[in-house]
Amino acid sequence: MAEEIIKLKGLTKRYGKFTAVDHLDLTINKGEVFGLLGPNGAGKSTTILMLLGMTEPSEGTVSVCDIDPISNPVEVKRKVGYLPEDVGFYERYTGLENLVFTARLNGLSKNEAEKKAESLLERVGLSEHKNKKAGIYSRGMRQRLGLADVLIKDPEVIILDEPILGIDPYGVKEFLNLIIKLSKQEGITVLFSSHHLYQVQQVCDRVGLFVGGRLLAEGDINSLSQKLFGNSPYTVEIGVNGHSVTDDNLINIIREIDGVENVSNVNNKLLAECSKDVTSEISKTIINSGYPLTSLNKKEYGLDDIYYHYFEGGTKNE
Ligand code: ADP
Ligand code: MG
Question: Cβ < 6 Å from ligand 1: which residues?
């Protein structure tokens, strides 16, 4: 059975009358990459701070690696690496010097610290920049240095707050690949917050959609689609010539295909809502029935549809 490493129950944070995090229930398993997804002000950073014992919940419980971060913040910090939104480094020290400094603070001897720093710089792909001052690092390089810094203490869990904000697309891809590699190779549990849909979709085992302090839904992309779009996760847009689009006979023929739940006429095209991918059956059936098929376009719901559904209050069909 999966080992539960982060457990949040009824977790709530109020600032005066304002509720920033509202009865959050969430469990994250060992080795999972979990994306906390939501717009600005959703309560992502507040949740992260409570996980680290850096701010006290108003209600509810938190457990990280079986430790209560509220009563044992120091113990949690030993096991959890945290990369805040704005990583601070000694700008006039090189990347290598910064890491050695952290390693020494973590109790490593000078020799061990240097060895560890060098090997981590290698792992995050910064070896060739190790002797440059951190002050001239790009945002992407700073994030990688931040990741190396967090890895010095061999954490069981890494928590990153908006780690890909402001990195160029190529850097984002590299950074996220690095995170997956770490998680899969070393069984490190990763929790990160973001409002970048596509990247999150690419790397997370599960995501949680967080809006206005509430977790609206969580799961892998497929189960979120299922929850959202029920029996019809696929839509096939069918183009046919002339009056065929209003031909009831054609509509009935398509409706009878196993897996087609509904067919409607939208903007001179037929939209078939389907419970499974029956695109090729649809095309065969139309052609075999002698109708002139002009186009066929399958739409699968992705995270952006899910996001729009929850965040904008409606499905996005374009
Ligand atoms: P996110 O990280 O998702 O952007 P935050 O957790 O930073 O969201 O903030 C959630 C909400 O709580 C916001 O409306 C923010 O203004 C409010 N908030 C955060 N920290 C404080 C604080 N220390 N005092 C008062 N309000 C706060
Ligand atoms: Mg934030």
Answer: 15, 20, 38, 40-46
Helix (H) or strand (E) holding 131: none
The residue to which tokens 């908006």 are assigned = 162
CATH 3.30.70.100 fits 234-300, yes or no: yes
Position in ligand 1 atom list of the atom nearest CA 46: 6
What are the pLDDT digits (tens) for 171-185?
A: 888 888 888 888 898
Instruction: Domain 4-226: give its CATH code.
Output: 3.40.50.300
Half-sphere exposure of 13 (CA within 13 A, CB side): 22
Residues 6+ apart with CB under 8 A from 119: none
Give 94's DSSP letter: B
Three-state secondary structure call for residue 232: coil
Which of left, alpha, beta for 35 (phi over 0: left; psi -120 to 50: alpha)?
Answer: beta
Q: Does residue 17 have a pLDDT over 70?
A: yes
Given a contact cutoff of 8 angstroms between Cβ atoms, the answer to whether 87 and 165 are in contact is no
User: Could you tell me the pLDDT band of residue 228, with boundaries at 50, 70 and 90?
Assistant: low
Distance 39 CA to ligand 1 centre (A): 12
